[in-house]
Amino acid sequence: MTDDSAMITQVLQATHYRALAEGTAMTYREMLKTVHPDKCKHPRAQDATNRLLEMFRHFTSGTTFTDDSGSFLTNDHWVLFQGDKQAVAQARRNQLEIAVGATEHLKRYMPYSWDSDDSFLLSQRAIPLVNLTLPQDHVNWVVSRLLEFCMLLHRHTGRTHLGLTPAQVMLVPETHGIVVAGFYHTSELGGRVQTISAAYRHWYPGQLLRDKKAAENADLEMVKRLGAYLLGDRSGLGTALRKTHHREFVDFLLSSDDDSLACYEKYREMLDKNFPSQFIHLNI
């Protein structure tokens, strides 16, 4: 394989720019010069050039997403909020208050530090769940991590998150970790709910919408809706998955639970019964 061919292969197989740069020990300009069709006659030179340009743009400038405060930018290593400053400030306050009294286990779900009033740095590469569709085995562990987060949040802080939507949950592919942000709607358990995610109103239990009282089942319901979303049902409702996905898993997504510890234990029992216990690399 020629040097050009090897570089083309590396670019096309890379999941993100930092890994590519570290693997090649080349600068961006050097890589671009190597794969550009003006210099390289490889049949996939243009594909590699386009891929390199996109990865570098994302790494240097970030990609725009939308959450409950408006737009935000992320390059998977930092997050910069550009929307409603009051909403961002509220989310930041809520998250920092929770982090102060959190157990080390709970803190693992918030592996970032605020470097300004509207931005934070991630300790590991993390990708928003927005528009992601994952294989069943990977959805299994995402749901498991989120249910554990809910259980720890409820048991150790007495609070609910109430905003577990695709933009506010990120995954760490290398470790199967989960990052939870977007603490806009956090409420004390049993307390009055002041705000919810308008875009995902249909993900909340009807009782919460009626009573406006924070309860564990609201977070559990949103985790299940995220599970359906990641399996490809963008509505999050899950009923469309009955004919295409694992029956007991879908039954769990469609069930109702009021206690986060009992729900987590029920879920883990279902996984142990139906799926092999193994670490499957997620190459994204």
Characterise the protein shown here.
With 284 residues, the chain is an alpha+beta fold. It folds into two domains: 3-61, no CATH class; 127-274, Transferase(Phosphotransferase), domain 1. Helix content is 46%, strand content 13%. The chain contains eleven helices and ten strands. It has helices at 3-13, 17-24, 28-35, 45-61, 85-101, 104-107, 136-157, 206-211, 216-230, 247-254, 260-274; strands spanning 63-67, 70-74, 78-81, 112-116, 119-122, 127-128, 159-160, 169-172, 177-180, 187-188. The strands form three sheets. The protein has a five-stranded antiparallel beta sheet. A three-stranded antiparallel beta sheet has the order 6-8-9, covered by helices on one side. It has a two-stranded antiparallel sheet with strand order 7-10. A hairpin with a 4-residue loop joins strand 8 (169-172) and strand 9. Helix 1 crosses helix 4 (45-61). The model has no long low-confidence stretch (mean pLDDT 95).
List the helices and strands and how they pair.
Layout: H1 3-13, H2 17-24, H3 28-35, H4 45-61, E1 63-67, E2 70-74, E3 78-81, H5 85-101, H6 104-107, E4 112-116, E5 119-122, E6 127-128, H7 136-157, E7 159-160, E8 169-172, E9 177-180, E10 187-188, H8 206-211, H9 216-230, H10 247-254, H11 260-274
Antiparallel strand pairs: 1-2, 2-3, 3-5, 4-5, 6-8, 7-10, 8-9
Helix pairs in contact: 1-4, 3-4, 7-9, 7-11, 9-10
